[in-house]
Amino acid sequence: MLSANWQQWSRLADDFDDTYGAGIAMSYQLSDWTVQTGFSIDSSPLNSKDRGHALPLDQQWRFGVGGTKTLSNGMGLGLAYQYQSLGDGDITGSLLNKGHYDTNRIHFITGSLSF
Questions:
Q1: How many other CB atoms are there within 10 angstroms of residue 66's CB atom?
Q2: For the whole model, what pTM was predicted?
Q3: In this structure, how many other beta carbons lie within 10 angstroms of the beta carbon of residue 4?
Q4: Inter-residue contact 8 to 21 (CB < 8 Å)
Q5: How far apart are alpha carbons 3 and 49 in whole angstroms?
Q6: Is 76 exposed, middle or buried (CB count within 10 Å of its CB: 0-12, 13-18, 19+)?
Q7: Backbone phi, then psi, for 100, in 5-degree steps?
Q8: CA contacts within 13 A on the Cβ side of 104
C-alpha cells in the first residue's frame, strides 16, 4: 500500500506552510495471523520562528508494526507498536519564544478486539 498527500495549510494563516507526506505499508497473511508494518513522513507546517512551545512539531516520521490473530469464534485480537518522531522542533521567535526540542518522540502501544 502506498499513500501521498499535500495539505494547503497556507490558506489558514500567513505563518503556515503547505505540507506534503508519503507512506508505505505492507500486510501479510499467515494462516490465522495478519501482520502489518508501515512507514510514513510528513513535512512541517511551521518554520522555526513561528513554532511555539505548546506543540513544537517539526518534520514528522512514523514507523509501526502489528499483528491481528483471528480467533476460533471469528473475532480478531490485535497488538501494535508505533514510534513517532516529531522532529527537532527548533523555536527561534522572540526573546521569550526560543527553544530546541531534540527528544520530541512518542511511543504508542495499542490493543484491539474486532467482532
A1: 19
A2: 0.78
A3: 8
A4: no
A5: 30
A6: middle
A7: -150, 125
A8: 20
pLDDT for 15-33, tens place per residue?
889 999 999 999 999 989 9
Nearest by Cα to 109 from 83, 72, 90: 83
The amino acid at residue 14 is D
Q: Which three cell numbers stand for residue 61?
A: 516520521
* Structure confidence by residue, pLDDT tens digits, 39-74: 999 998 887 777 777 777 788 999 999 999 999 999
Phi, psi of 10 (to 5 degrees): -60, -20
Please spell the DSSP secondary structure of 43-88, one letter per residue. Answer: --SS-TTT--SSS---SEEEEEEEEEEE-TTS-EEEEEEEEEE---
Q: Hunting for cell 527561534 — which residue is that?
A: 92
Length of the chain: 115
